[in-house]
Amino acid sequence: MNVLRLAPRCALVLALLAGASAALALQVTDDRGVTVTLPAAPQRIVSLLPSLTETVCELGQCQRLVGVDRYSNFPASVQKLPQVGGGLDPNIEMIVALKPDVVLMATSSRAGDRLQALGIKVVALEPKRHADVQRVMLKLGQLLEVPDAARIWRAIDAGVSAAAQSLPASTRGVKVYFEVNQGPYAAGESSFIGETLTRLGAQNIVPAKLGPFPKLNPEYIVRANPDLIMIGRRSVDGLAARPGWQSIRALREQRVCIFPPDEADMLVRPGPRMAEGARLMAKCLMNMAPTLAASRAALPPEGALPALGRPSGGQASKLAPGAKP
Hints:
Distance between the termini: 67 Å
Largest sheet: 5 strands, mixed
Number of helices: 11
Radius of gyration: 24 Å
Order of helices and strands: HEEEHEHEHEHHEEHEHEHEHH
Number of strands: 11
Helix content: 25-40%
Structural class: alpha/beta
Shape: elongated
Strand content: 5-15%
């Protein structure tokens, strides 16, 4: 009889415990629209996107990373971690062996389904614009239970604004071509790089309608005739030898900012170093300011240049391979 009387009570206790456990579970909805449920904040994380790696570390949680993709190289401490391939070609077996609580990756990665089939939790986040960087910062703050993620974002945003305010009026309206990777793949107005250029007062030669990171026909850039080119050292070889590029104002008047690999990596990653990237672009604009006024005075009347060409290969909304956001 005593056992029979206790049974309902035990069932009630178990139900209450299950409810409490469910209440303590952590849920995050990622950029696929998938709600991922974890029993607690993850302590073992594999990151397959450099910008996500950097964001985890900026949130003060670098110690939770147990593996990263081959392109994650900042901060320096992550270079000691096991490398599990790239975002598009990860080593699934190696990831499984690391026993992660969660894998962070881009929505464009094809590894998500395979990892989930093996019972591994996946959170897919892919920032492309300033608002995305803020959202991902807050989302990872939620996932990692870091309460001051919003404060970190405000500091980044304030840093971009400070870079813009440091520039003289002479740099306003400068026509800029920013090459993300050989192809050529450019940073359009709608990308986070393009948004930074706009905040700096520059005029991007690649309009938003072409997408964040379109592959362009080189002739398009010749016809757009930018005042200034920003490019990474990895992509600069043969720049002047491209057909027709000798006539581009930026090359003719030697207004090309060439960023070394570490700076180029910073510039193409939509993450916590975005303010530092803005300062690099502002410095480039500032250094070129003395020659810009004279160049503008020599410009032909509005409408004298031929119409712009079209991008080749259609519009591309993703970074080119090797851009490593």
